[in-house]
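Troubleshooting log. The previous structure file for this entry was overwritten by mistake, so regenerating from the original sequence record. Sequence copied from the archived sheet and checked twice against the printout by T.R.
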Amino acid sequence: MTIRLDGPGVTIADVVAVARHDEQVVLTDSAIERLTAARSIVETLAEGEPTYGVSTGFGALATVTIPPARRAALQVALVRSHAAGMGPAVEREVVRAMVFLRARTLALGHSGARPLVAEGLVALVNAGITPVVPEHGSLGASGDLAPLAHAALTLLGEGEAEYGGAVVEAAEALTAAGLTPITLADKEGLALTNGTDGILGMLCLACHDTAALLTQADVTAALTVEGALATDRAFAADLQALRPHLGQAASAANLRSLLAGSPLVASHRTGDVRVQDAYSIRCTPQVHGAARDTLAFAITTAETELASAIDNPMVLPDGRVESCGNFHGAPLGFAADFLAIALAEVGAIAERRIDRLLDRMRSHGLPPFLADDPGVDSGLMIGQYTVAAMCAENRRLASPASVDSLPTSGMQEDHVSMAWGAVRKLRSVVDNVRRILAVELTVAGRAVDLRHPVEPAPGTGAALAALRRVVAGPGPDRFLSPELAAAEELLASGGLLAEVAAVTGPLA
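Regenerated output below.
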């Protein structure tokens, strides 16, 4: 497929396609027309009143007037000086998303850059040239200044970029791809650096991943229900309808579909002295569902930003060029922090389910730690340790970044969003929760196997069959880390959900 970049209409799926699957991008004719119209307005400002970033310095230097002969140099100096990041390079997919989204904003026609500049960004994406962008440097206002400056530097043929699997000088990468460095004109350095594109790209990727994770969490929880000889009665539709949160309803519906026709659940419907299950099982739809509702908020925020023009100053159709605060990352930072909190709890409740299956005092007949020969074998004991460590880390990562503003630029930029930090830690929480669910899948799968000859439901049985293709069943202790990694890859690849959905139909 080719993503037609018109400016409006970009979706989260488009971002994922470009960032992860190297889909090609093409600017539409209407986008080029908007770019040209906005550029003509900027060019009329050359001899007019002082305009921020066009005929003035930046930040606290906005009171310094720049003569016409120095304005092109101003833009180059901006890019070079702002490319001040430090630390390890951020992931390739993040940089690709950021470059694509910066082209999206320019294509809206409110930034005043020439079509040449947007075309240059698109050319980087299509050629597979990924600027090297250090992790540290963005405060989320004025947007992602340092990360975007590192990306813009590549357009100038300066700095470093990844191309063909190697990090090379940007000029070398451009030459190898048949591209030519760009010479910036008035306003264009500012237009390339004043946006939330890195933050937005990471939020889009995190939302995409979280949607899959929350469905996978329902699958692993359903396996735990069977492994723990728990009941599905608490997930009944009429009970759930008494508290009509949309996410809760969706999670409960998934659990019902996964457990439908379960011989394991039916095996103890009579004669079981328990009247209710522990919260970690019984309240699964409430916790998973609340996370789903939080994700819905984050998706709405990301989609709104995907429809937004993010720059400063903004070029308006009536010829005005006005300063504004659209670059401030607060909306994205709040959403990322909220989603990290919700996901941390998805991991926390999964850890409690795992511990229950491993504890012989609470697992209703299973061997300690699901070991083959308890004492000689430790079984899956240490898997829970690993999960506990990640849950502890998630609690630290769930502390909000967006309340931690620090003033910069001589107090001109005296409140910043810290949204870059919010989405960076959100991505870490997403990865941790995937690993936690991989452990629950491994533990619950072994618990269900140990209930043989009583069988799981068709839906959970499909999940167990998918797991057994990459992870062996119960037996003496063996090297556990590769098995947990294989379960994690089964989740990351989407293979688990595909095999389950082939039996149950699509899950929410």
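The chain has a mean pLDDT of 95. Archived copy saved in two places this time.
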